[in-house]
Amino acid sequence: MRDFNFFEHFEKKTQSSKGPRLSYTVVLIFVVLAAAIWPAFNFFRIYQLNNEAEDLRHTLETSPDFHRFDIVDAKEMELAEKREQLQQMEDAVALIDEMELIDENLFFTIATSMPEDTALNSMSMSGTSIQVNGIAQSKPAVAEFEYNLRKTQMFQNIFVPSMSQQEELWQFNLNFELKEVPAHEIDEA
What residue numbers bound the domain in which 169 lies? Predict the structure, then answer.
């Protein structure tokens, strides 16, 4: 017959609990060591990378071709500016094409309105407003230019905001606006 030991269950529990305690201790020691070693490893790696970067920087700066980098940087900045200017010009061309205000007829009308003794230095347009900067032999030539522009009936609000004499020539600014053309007149043309 077999003897029953009612306390056998408690004896096995105390024996088996010694095993996991040892494994918890080993895992805890491993985690503490990893927590201490990992930052030290990272610090050492960062130190190595900084030294490599400093060596490469020193090699680059002592290179005889180092001044070329400054030239390349300047050219890249200039290229970026030119690309931006090109984009602005393309946008302006697209806007002008959309507006269909500026064409050969506009320039021809302004050019034929000019007396022989006048010349234009610059012309700028913003929306329907046009500003002309030019020179003339006399005040009556500027007045004739203004009169001829009025006579075309393509322009409105024509006026001369400034006029000054420089040596024997008269420098003038002339502002005017394009008249809006009704849609039925565009269709007829």
Answer: 98-188
Q: How many other C-beta atoms lie within 10 A of the C-beta of residue 136?
A: 21
43, 79, 81, 88, 136 from 85: Cα distances, Å: 48, 10, 6, 5, 33
Cα(177)–Cα(183) distance, integer angstroms = 18
| pLDDT tens for each residue of 20-49 | 566 888 888 889 998 989 999 999 999 999
CA gap 149, 140 in Å, rounded: 14
Query: Rounded to whole angstroms, how far apart are CA atoms 122 and 124?
Result: 7
Whether residue 169 lies inside any domain: the answer is yes
pLDDT digits 0-9 by tens, 142-177:
999 999 999 998 889 999 999 999 888 999 999 999
